[in-house]
Amino acid sequence: MSADGCSDPSVVEWEKDKLMMMTACDDGRRRVYESGDKGESWTEALGTLSRVWGKKKDGEAKNVGSGFITATLDGDGTEKRNVMLVTLPVYSTENEKEKGKLHLWLTDNTHIVDIGPVSEKDDDAASSLLYKSAGSGEQEKKEDKLIALYEKKNVGENKPSPGMVSVVLTEELKRVKEVLATWKKVDERVSKLCPSPIAEQDTSTANACSAVNITAGLVGFLSGKFSNGKWKDEYLGVNATVKGGVGTENGVKFIGRGAGAEWPVGRQGENQLYHFANYNFTLVATVSIHGEPKEENPIPLIGVKMNDDNKNTVLLGLSYNKERQWQVWGSAGKKTEKHSSGWEPGTTHQVAIVLQNGTQGSVYVDGQRVGGSPFDLEDKGSKEISHFFIGADGGNAGKQEDVPLTVTNVLLYNRPLN
């Protein structure tokens, strides 16, 4: 048992001279630790996988070991990628009773995708995974295999456990490779985007944009996949919910009072794929404001809200007003800043919100910080983030002035960008 009340460790080797350990903890969230000295010391991986997976809403969950392995797989038959495969329960409510099924999860230590269930009924006990790579010999059939082993639950109080169940995950492995192929295609597409207007306008070097690795630490990407009120993450992670939006080529146009999008963090509930955002993140978007406000109140553009007993406090946000000024506001108080260029109707701007070490926030427009220095967000304390908002912030949304807004190519990173 660790100092954090965690037990049942599963350890894998990840990259060169690095170990990863997943544990089951008393508070219900799975903590993941990293070690770069062969296990002599461990640091919680708060920026990637730790505390992503949780427990059922009500009742205590028994601490059990998870399936946790690494593999080198290809998604399109050419380039191979190192990944981790995990089996953990996912709970759903059925007839007012929460039932858990083991699900297979895929991650490359940046992106995370739920591949789907691998057990039947409410089997959510201890599990493990086995992977066999494809053979290379002439006599050996060239195919790889993924197998899940899990403990079958007791069928009654006085009946013995049926023991272990073995499941060959043929379709699931196929799905894993499809996801990897998708990740690769999205990486290639994002790599063609210029990370900032400043680099885009820099003609002093031909590769001003390519000099920056725009996909390093990139977790989520909202672009042109929008339908039925869902703005889908191109990396197959967490989707955003949209109100009052219509799809455009690379994003969404928000029209009407209260129009906007919510991209959940803590609001996801049991499993929070973007839990890293409580410590470090960068949220980047390309925006264009169509029209001019007539009312005095500033109009929210983009930001992040806290999960604080239904108060929905804005931790950090960017808005604009009829004087064509940018305004930063949140838990540190409101502050109107005169940006060097202000904003212009119909003009494309790149905006970014950055959180560093959970306590310092910054807002940027077109590569320049709004305000002279980062904002102190010490008031955040132990409160966690609820969601990101784009457009309306949800607070008196119906009263917010209707100024059409187009948002494209929204990028979410698990690190503060320079």
From TrEMBL:
Residues 214-418 form the Trans-sialidase C-terminal domain. InterPro entries: ConA-like_dom_sf, Sialidase, Sialidase_sf, Sialidase_trypan, TS_C. GO terms for molecular function: exo-alpha-sialidase activity. Pfam families: BNR_3 (PF13859), TS_C (PF22925). Residues 1-151 form the Sialidase domain. This is Trans-sialidase, putative.
